[in-house]
Task: structure prediction
Amino acid sequence: MNKQLRGSLLLLLTAMIWGGAFVAQSEGLKTVPPLTFQAVRQFMGFLVLLPVIWIRSRKALPQSEEERKAAGKKLRIAGLICGLFMFFATSLQQFGLLYTTPGRSGFITALYILIVPIFGLLFGRRVSFRIWCAVAIAIVGMYFLCFTGGVSFGLGELLTLGCSFCFAGHILMVDRVSGDVDGVKLSCIQFLVSALLSAVGAALSETPSVPALLDCWLPLCYAGFASCGIAYTLQIVAQRDVHPTLAAILMSTESVFAALFAWLLVGKGLSSTELLGSALMFSAIILAQLPDRRPARN
Result:
């Protein structure tokens, strides 16, 4: 199995775990305010990675003092930036949902499929015509999967668009540093940064309740341990071998898996347009995975 295929499968697994988190988050938010839920789940993701880092550090190759300092500085800077992107992306999405529908939120959030390759051009990450076609098919698929009602653009849509730009920034930042820093440590630091910022926001604007947190322990555990601790770490590890545009397409299938989990766990049926959207999304993935037949340029 080549590295790109392995990374693509890991990103599909990541999207599947995130899809289940949609159900967990919607259930948890019935009793816990959004920033409180976000702070707790991300702090749980931070905690679950600490023993993994400790075990890995015992098997790590020895480094000189200068190498440790340089690697540590790069890791802290990357973790801080990724944590900021994560905090603003998830917060803007959450507050955007107060003013728009989940379907529109899902579609506008997934526009990072298009934003990532456009921003990637600024860093010299060009994509082929075939990948641009896959991006277009994926956007149409997301429209059929998520979008309902008439076309309008208000505060909720504006906030969610900001969320999409932040997710695009996060994907590109991970792509830029994933080959230079420890992926598990990077994931751990970004959770801590985002959790602390979320906790400050919750303390200023919400009233956290311990009984409410205990009542939704199962959604919190899934969102914290699986969605944060496992899935985001898989994203960082897998993106080492996958082009950021392809990674964006693969991760956007979380909406497809969210619809499937809603059907399996909540009993919400899939409409014909949702099935069409899901089919188009997976068609885009297959198209993006096809090898280029043109000879490489010198």
In short: The two ends are 26 Å apart (CA to CA).
